[in-house]
Amino acid sequence: MKVIRYIPSSPFLLPDEAARKKALEIISEGHPNKEIEDGYSRLPQFVDSGDLLERVTCPECGKELDSEDWSILMDALFTDYGFESLDIDLPCCGAYSSLDKLIYDAPCGFSCFEVDVIEGESVPDGLLDKLAEAVGCPFKAIIAEM
Questions:
Q1: Fewer CB within 10 Å of terminal CB in the chain, N or C?
Q2: How many domains does the chain have?
Q3: Roughly how many angstroms between the first and final C-alpha of the chain, as a whole number?
Q4: Helix (H, G, I), strand (E, B), or coil: what is residue 11?
Q5: 140, 107 Cβ separation under 8 angstroms
């Protein structure tokens, strides 16, 4: 099953209720007759690409992170409610970075607000621009295969 996940580019941004409703309206108009789910939390959650994610690479040295190392980084920062921080020291080269700056071979992200289009086909032209204008922050679309 294919899911298109729309999130703000800023991981810690939680739009107010009016902006969330406007985002839902814009996404619903762009994906008529599709099932749409939304959610939000006070702290960012990991928004993955499902089965499409195969590797994570260091943005500093370009080395692929071992899946166990990546899991340790994620587990160390995740709390009961989400990620209070995304800041990390990379195990491969010791550089200071952020979980959202890692290079995911299939785009992923971190967000306090997410809108999913179930069985979405593609991102309609201009939709991301409309979302950015309505919410006041750039949005990105993450294609997930479940």
A1: N
A2: 2
A3: 5
A4: coil
A5: yes
